[in-house]
Amino acid sequence: MTIGVKKVARPREMSFPESLYLVEIVKGLGVTMGHLLSNIVRQEGIKTIEYPEVRREMPPRFRGRHRLMKRENGSPRCVACYCCATACPAKCITIVAGESPDPAVEKYPVRFDIDMLRCVFCGMCVEACPCDAIRMDTGWFTPPDDTREKLIFTIDTLLEK
Amino acid sequence: MTGPLFDITVAVARIAVFFAFCFGLVVVMTWVERKGAAYIQDRRGPNRADIFGIRAWGLFHPLADALKFLFKEDFIPDNAHRLFYQMAPMFSLAPAILAIAVIPFGPDVTVMGRKVALQIADLNVGILYLFAVSGMTVYGVVLAGWASGSKYPLLGGLRSSAQMLSYEVSMGLSLIGIFMVFESVRMSQIVAGQGGLLFGVLPKWGVFVQPLGFILFLVAQYAEANRTPFDLPEGESELVAGYHTEYGSFKFSMFMMAEYLHMVVGAAVVATLFFGGWQVPYLGDAGFLLPGGSAVAVPPAFVLLLRIGAFVSKVVFFAWLYVWIRWTIPRFRYDQVMRLGWKVMLPLSLLNIFATGLILLLLKK
Predict the structure, then answer these.
(1) Which end of chain B is more exposed for a tag (fewer CB within 10 A), N or C?
(2) Which residue has the higher pLDDT, A131 or B243?
(3) Are B247 and B144 in contact (CB under 8 A)?
(4) Intra-chain end-to-end CA distance of chain B, in Å
(5) Would you tell me how many other CB atoms lie within 10 Å of the CB of residue A51?
(6) pTM of the model
(7) Which of chain A's residues have a Cβ under 8 Å away from the Cβ of B42?
(8) Residue A7, C-beta contacts closer than 8 angstroms, at least 6 positions apart
């Protein structure tokens, strides 16, 4: 096999008026002024998303912040099996199991904390869960907050969504 | 009012008015720069600062910036030369403020039976004073670069001094043609000289009698003000922020003000020397006198307003041109800057002097 030689087109030589730059600069000024005016006239044409007021539509499979699912009677679907905590590569899930008052269910989580500062949003917990109790389909990031403690989400926060 | 009291009142009033105009424009220009840049680049730009929920397209951002700079810690780096480090922002801002003194912002007016020039100081050395003062700006930049005790500012300061000195030469030479045509270096006489007509149609503005001189002067002025495409002294991709890298709080703000004041003063100088200053085309003291021979009478008070308005709009346009150019043309390479300065601008400005002299000589004969 021979090595092919690809001819790359070089930019053509500048003509004399072009090499003076003056006309070209005026043309450039025209382009920028066009953008300026069209953006002032048609503000909605600007792509910028005004973040806190307007949110980007996330794709349906976007892995965002977690939520815990509920049963029909409102209790958490989680059975405190520790599968998610075991699967978690960042070790950010803390579960404390307790005996469930419901005779049909063996255990329930007394505590279910996710440290959102450690979470890497890999989705392993969702895959590991045997009863589809944890999902990451809220479609949004972890919102910012001013203390670390507020970013350790407890079971109440996670059940809310 | 007696003589000396009247003089002092007039002097203070002129300084207050023009100073307020220039600084007001500086404040507005910082907003125009950010908003204009944003719209040119298809962004929205600053629009968050609000007072009682009124956002006014981000107009309060300069205010917020100023407040922020005022309340920041006023630090001096360990390696800095303490005295020079603190002197540099002053050296940067002071020449820019001094330069506004010689710019005529309106025609002579009669107040209480006395003639008052709308110019802070009508010096007979006019433009030479302007050059002397604006030449000192380089000290601020070099001092800041050296006194910061850091590498990037030093490089920025070096670049800036070389660049400003190179372009000072062609800037001075490009104006010689104007002196030759209007036969004066006094700003008020140059403006008065631009009131006539050329071939009975064109206003006798500097730009029409000295087109090459105008282009050379404009380019040299952009280089002097360290604005794009000549903003290598603060090329952020190479030098962080150039000479003011180590500055914070109000000292940085002074550099910022100096830069924008340079733009405003530069715009005023271009308007004065090449675009007739306060002159409105075809407008005489009594009213418009159009080239066709028709005349429109205008009351004197309105003539004055028109002329001051003309000056203000010219200044605003050229100040905007700085911003417009900045977001249109990318930065030059350093060798390109030097080549343009010495090998193109300098010969062309010499040629301009020669050609102007030749034409004036032929016209006199």
Answers:
(1) C
(2) A131
(3) yes
(4) 51
(5) 8
(6) 0.79
(7) 35, 39, 45-47
(8) none
